[in-house]
Sorting nexin 8/Mvp1 BAR domain-containing protein (Helicostylum pulchrum), 86 residues
Amino acid sequence: MRHPEFVSWRRAKSPIVEEEFIRVNPHTDDLEGLIPKDLDDRIEHIRKRLPESIEKYDSLCSVMDRCIRLKEARALEMKRYNDTLK
């Protein structure tokens, strides 16, 4: 598109400056029915289990880290073995 064509096209097609998403307050009455009645109990249960879950996750991460280091050490040892056989 040449410059004069672009300028005339731009003048004819001005951009829309309206808000793309107009915020409207949702009908909360409809949404309240979706909230479980025992929400507070569920949150409390999760709060109690969270420290133990974090500890287990940390332990799993440590195990995986050790496995990775072991595999890297084995790969290095195999490379040395290969170089020795050459």
